[in-house]
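Lab channel / #folding
Pinned by the channel admin:
"Please post every new chain as: sequence first, then the structure tokens as a reply. Keep commentary short and put observations after the output so the thread stays searchable."

First post following the new format, from NK:
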Amino acid sequence: MREGILLVELPPWDPRTPPLGIAYLASYLQSRGIEVDVFDLNIEMYNSTFSGNRKGWGNEDYHWWYNNNSGQKYSELLDAYAERILSFNRRIIGLSATLPSLAFMNLLLPRIRNRSKDALIIVGGPATFFKKSRLDYLDRKSTDYLITGDGEETLCRLLKKIQGGKSLSFLSRLAWRVWKDDLFDRTVCIRGRTIMDLDSLPLPTFEEFDLSRYTEGTLSTDFTLPLIFSKGCTRHCTFCSDRVLSNPYRCRKPEGVFNEMKTQVKKYHNRCFRLNDLSFNANPIFLDKLCDLIIGEGLIAKWYGQAQVRPDTDKKLFAKLKKAGCAQFSLGLESFSNHVLSLMGKGYTAEAASAFLKASKEAGIDNHIAIIVGYPGETEDDFNETLKYLKANISYIDRVCSLNICGMPAGSTLSEDPQKYDYFFGREDWVTTDNTNTYRVRKRRYNQVIEFCQANNIAIDASLDLDDFEEYKRNLRNPTHA
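Reply from TO:
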């Protein structure tokens, strides 16, 4: 089998653009002399599915994958996918996995292992970061290595050691960790140093991908490529595990981002960038300088992504953002109750959120917002405050892009301290100790928001299929049912 590595993107992932994480890995490894093939299994499966039956890639399909529905739907194709992966003839196979990927991956890996005993399998991505996720969901019998943090440098050094037949002793230094979650595991976990200088990484070229296959690819009238300004987040929202995964906050230099945008537009003629940041406006000084560069050189490209409510954003910066191509904020507002916002650690008030929405919309930038119902401590009055502010801000809100029932994501502050946040896990789901916030209460509020938005002509993307969610909860209570 050939040296080098095959990088595989597992479903589910956003089918609009090529996966940026694997694109960065490929560029980094190639710059260090390592041969790389890329297989985007996610887009392969998405495009092979009849457009009217693409269950699994919707906003609301997160728990569908957990419930192993993918194994049922794609059972006849799993052997073919394993054969396709092995057809690249790479001994080392690297897979990028999210938490919803794991049930599918656990069906795929034994098929790869049964066909190739010599295959060496490395898994990275968000699914590997938290110990509970690794122990509860991941098939450690078929996996050789897990990379639990920034992958570029760690994967490169691991590959060079493997190909040189050397031990992993190089990882025993303070900045590197090697361990097993269970001493009897096959799987070795590795965590390397966090890459603080994002501009030191070779930029993705996307040459490994057929860009026509993505829904916003070269055949789209709005051809889009992914891009990052930063990693991490400056906020400390208690319910968020993404911040824990990607912290500390690190921001690129505006000159580097501008040069990347200019290079991609010249090379691919795309006119849109989707930002993969947790909060692309977390550094206003960076943003101001980037806008100056874009406007100064007349680069024509729009861009959009997740952002935070920043009360310090003035009208001048909003206008500059619009002129530089900023088309949309996706804002994790979550609630319009000041009580709940304080409990969540959001760092702003409902009044500040309303002012931000108004100023953004008046500048010509669209506002998509996320809402969470049923946070521990949210009362009926708090919930009604959110509905009241939603109605008051109808003209400034283009879409509720995510509506969720409050969960307890692994690694979040909220999940780590039930006593502090006054809840326990009951028969159906978590319950506050005063029994006023139950799953039934949260489900009612969830449906109320949907009905409210529909009645007031607010576009909404619900983020839960309640049937899938409830099946997922049943499976947690009774694993043999899964």
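NK: The chain has two domains: 2-191, 221-481.
TO: also worth noting, Residues 439-455 form the longest helix (17 residues).
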